[in-house]
Design a protein that fits this description.
It is a single chain. It contains 4 helices and 6 strands. It is α+β, with helices and mostly antiparallel strands and 156 residues long. The protein has a single domain, classed as Nuclear Transport Factor 2, Chain: A. The chain has a 6-stranded mixed beta sheet.
Length: 156
């Protein structure tokens, strides 16, 4: 079942971008270095740091994004600002080692996020709890010219 989902998602990525060849081929060293920069950028709480790691037309798929997807730097800034307003002390850590896809065109990293929910989320019925929150998830990154072109986030 998982392989069918992966194949289906690969087809969606190819349809969206026109070709999986539009993405960089990655080395394990590139993936490790980028993952370190990516997590540092998240933990900085400075949207410009994640923007600097992204192509102007970055596409980010995540169920916690309204509509499930954002496209572009401005949408990324707005989404990050909302997340950090909701959980101002949010920090991420890597769980395990990043995994490079067999075709070397994407890499997946598992993560754990923790913080305190002090701000109200945009979705109805999610008032601040002022209590701890913890998420586990994974991000799959596709790169173009050394920057994020597409991110798929799956979390609990």
């Amino acid at each position: 079942m998982a392989s069918r989902r992966g194949a289906a998602y690969s087809a969606v990525v190819t349809q969206t971008t026109g070709s999986s060849a539009a993405f960089d081929q990655l080395s394990p060293e590139q993936v490790e270095a980028f993952t370190d920069r990516f997590i540092s950028a998240w933990n900085s709480h400075d949207p410009s740091q994640l923007v600097a790691l992204s192509n102007p037309d970055v596409m980010w798929d995540d169920d916690i994004i309204e509509g499930g997807r954002l496209v572009g730097h401005q949408a990324l800034i707005e989404w990050l600002s909302a997340i950090w307003w909701t959980v101002p002390d949010l920090t991420f850590e890597i769980v395990g080692n990043p995994r490079l896809a067999l075709d070397r065109r994407s890499a997946t990293v598992n993560w754990r996020g923790t913080g305190t929910m002090t701000g109200e989320r945009q979705s109805p019925g999610s008032a601040p709890t002022n209590g701890p929150v913890e998420w586990f998830g994974s991000d799959t990154h596709w790169m173009r010219k050394g920057k994020l072109a597409h991110v798929l986030t799956v979390n609990d």
